[in-house]
Design a protein that fits this description.
By secondary structure, the chain is an alpha/beta fold. It contains 12 helices and 8 strands. β7, α10 and β8 form a beta-alpha-beta unit. The structure holds cytidine-5'-monophosphate.
């Protein structure tokens, strides 16, 4: 049986709001229902790095979602600076092995985990074809290729849709992290997301963490919404355990 704390630690709330004061208000409204926060580009452009530093210093887990994509030298130096903030994890686009290896070098001895963004959850097979990726390549094909590349470069895990979690889990080491955005409850609005999954199915498929933004930030009561997601995580973990037991 999973403890409540274990399930709660697997929920990452995306603080996708335009101002630091709004992020603080959201954290306050969620209270103890979540303990892991993601700061992404919107908030970074409005003072989010100071908030990241402050939350990390206060013992909160912070996921800094910078999605770096640049030449190796620049990525290496940017990662080294990010490591000074005290955040728990950082994202880099997982497009090329050179910049992934540079990120690992830049991290040095910092405990900050490096996560490679495989294929954005807002993209479909048609979007990939439009980018010039070989016709017939599915998001899952590319996600798997990039997950292997990230693991080989020394990354701690990947960002991928719950729809790809099972095939990644079968292909990588047991400690390699799978973090899944694009999480929606059945029947909820998708917004711009395409490759979505419910939180329980994502966990049952092998995801370690889920990232939830609008369904919590825009809820009438974000604390109630966060608690609901934690319940679904618990259900997913139980399903995963019973699948493992029935295989043994
Ligand atoms: O509001 P929603 O739950 O769709 O937010 C998902 C969050 O996860 C956003 O902050 C988005 O930037 C992030 N993300 C994503 N897909 C990825 C990587 C990150 O949706 N592949």
């Amino acid at each position: 049986m999973q403890t409540d704390d274990d399930a709660r630690a697997r929920l990452i709330v995306a603080l996708d709001v335009p101002k630091v004061e709004e992020a603080r208000a959201l954290i306050g409204r969620i209270g103890d229902e979540a303990a892991f926060y993601k700061i992404g580009l919107e908030l970074v452009m409005a003072g989010g790095l100071d908030l990241a530093r402050e939350l990390a210093a206060a013992g909160r887990s912070v996921f800094l979602d910078m999605k770096f994509l640049d030449i190796g030298n620049t990525v290496e130096r940017a990662v080294a600076s990010a490591a000074e903030l005290g955040v728990a994890c950082l994202t880099i686009h997982g497009h090329d092995a050179k910049s992934l290896k540079a990120a690992v070098t830049g991290r040095g001895n910092s405990p900050m985990k490096l996560l490679a963004v495989t294929v954005l959850t807002s993209l479909t097979a048609e979007d990939l074809a439009e980018q010039g990726i070989a016709a017939g390549t599915t998001p899952a094909d590319l996600v798997l290729k990039r997950a292997h590349m990230a693991e080989a470069a020394g990354f701690d895990g990947v960002i991928a849709s719950g729809q790809e979690a099972a095939c990644i889990r079968a292909a990588v080491g047991p400690d390699f992290l799978i973090v899944t955005p694009g999480i929606r409850l059945a029947g909820a609005s998708l917004g711009d997301q395409e490759r979505v999954m419910t939180p329980d199915h994502a966990l049952a498929a092998g995801a370690d963490y889920i990232v939830v933004g609008r369904p919590i930030a825009q809820a009438d009561d974000p604390a109630v919404a966060a608690r609901t997601f934690v319940r679904y995580i618990e259900a997913g973990l139980s399903e995963r355990q019973s699948k493992t037991r029935s295989k043994d």
